[in-house]
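Milestone 3.1: sequence recovery, worked example.
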């Protein structure tokens, strides 16, 4: 009975997290579309209307950040997922970054790239959650047989393989963004101070990914 209650709680957690991330993804897609719309207008041709729209998008991005915070609280309370927690932390950092940049009407390639990374990360997390829910449904069908064989250990919210895959995606995202920023740094008129700030954020992120990998490898999250 206790195991059944825990499994039901896990299923509710998966469904709640998936629904929240779907909401965040829809909001982020809208902000991204708005960013692209302003970005297509040459900087010299932009008016106060474009500035006001960028500031509005910045506020919308800040609201996304609040939703991400709620998702982080959910996953932190659950406590077993290392890569998922890091992925959400990176989304939060990127959302804050985008909000700041939009407020300054920085709708350039770098801002757009960060928004695309947010979207990709959310899509990957949603896919992982959906796979876990599908697996949970399959386990239900085998429940009677499992009871006959003895109660297995409680499941983590996200299994080890999915965690490893997510860490790999986080690392690839750092690598790809680093290359994009280094390419932008070579362009004439590049804002070197901004570029250095973004590279420092990536360096900090790299350290966190390494820490998450260590925790996962040593089982310290269990």
């Amino acid at each position: 009975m206790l195991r059944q209650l825990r499994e039901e709680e896990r299923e509710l957690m998966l469904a709640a997290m998936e629904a929240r991330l779907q909401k965040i993804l829809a909001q982020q897609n809208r902000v991204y579309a708005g960013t692209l719309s302003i970005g297509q207008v040459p900087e010299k041709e932009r008016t106060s209307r474009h500035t006001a729209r960028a500031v509005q998008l910045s506020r919308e991005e800040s609201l996304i950040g609040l939703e991400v915070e709620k998702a982080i609280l959910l996953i932190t309370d659950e406590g077993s997922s290392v890569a998922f927690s890091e992925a959400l932390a990176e989304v939060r950092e990127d959302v804050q970054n985008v909000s700041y940049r939009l407020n300054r009407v920085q709708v350039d390639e770098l801002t757009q790239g960060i928004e695309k990374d947010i979207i990709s990360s959310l899509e990957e997390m949603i896919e992982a959650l959906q796979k876990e829910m599908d697996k949970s449904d399959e386990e239900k069908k085998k429940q009677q047989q499992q009871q006959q064989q003895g109660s297995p250990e409680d499941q983590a919210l996200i299994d080890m393989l999915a965690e490893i895959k997510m860490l790999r995606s986080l690392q690839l995202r750092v690598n790809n963004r680093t290359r994009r920023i280094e390419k932008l740094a070579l362009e004439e008129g590049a804002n070197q101070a901004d570029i250095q700030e973004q590279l420092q954020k990536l360096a900090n992120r790299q350290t966190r990914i390494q820490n998450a990998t260590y925790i996962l490898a040593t089982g310290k999250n269990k």
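The mean pLDDT is 90. The chain is about 85% helix and 0% strand.
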